[in-house]
Specification:
alpha+beta; SH3 type barrels; 5-stranded antiparallel β-sheet; 11 strands
């Protein structure tokens, strides 16, 4: 397994039974104990001086990808995407879309239904065409 973990990297992480939260890996010391490897993370919107969260490495999603400018122009608000998937032109067999916070995209949409999409902690969707 190849890890390219670095300070400043955008990640999703969980604390306990929380939903995914967005943060950046802090330039600090990781901790290892009998429960695993714990990485320091600063939540998005916080400053470096605010409380740092620690997430166990298996509770971190590392595959965030920064949006290119052309992708930012094609962001769809989550509510609009839900209306699209309810329409006659939608084909779940050919659809490819990812959840996004407007700056990065994270994981593909795996269930094309309103309930699943509304549970995702992001405001946007980016589609491939």
């Amino acid at each position: 397994m190849d890890f390219n973990i670095r300070a400043g990297m955008r990640v999703l992480y969980k604390q306990g039974n929380s939903n995914w939260m967005v943060g950046t890996i802090h330039n600090g010391n990781a901790e290892i104990n009998e429960q695993g490897l714990w990485i320091p993370i600063v939540p998005i919107g916080a400053t470096w001086e605010d409380e740092i969260h620690y997430a166990e490495i298996n509770q971190i999603f590392l595959d965030a990808t920064e949006l290119d400018n052309w992708m930012k122009e094609r962001l769809i608000p989550k509510a609009d995407y839900i209306e699209y998937i309810k329409g006659e032109d939608f084909d779940r067999h050919t659809e490819n879309a990812w959840v996004s916070d407007g700056e990065y995209y994270y994981y593909p949409i795996s269930k094309f239904n309103e309930i699943w999409i509304n549970k995702q902690p992001f405001d946007y969707v980016i589609r491939s065409e």
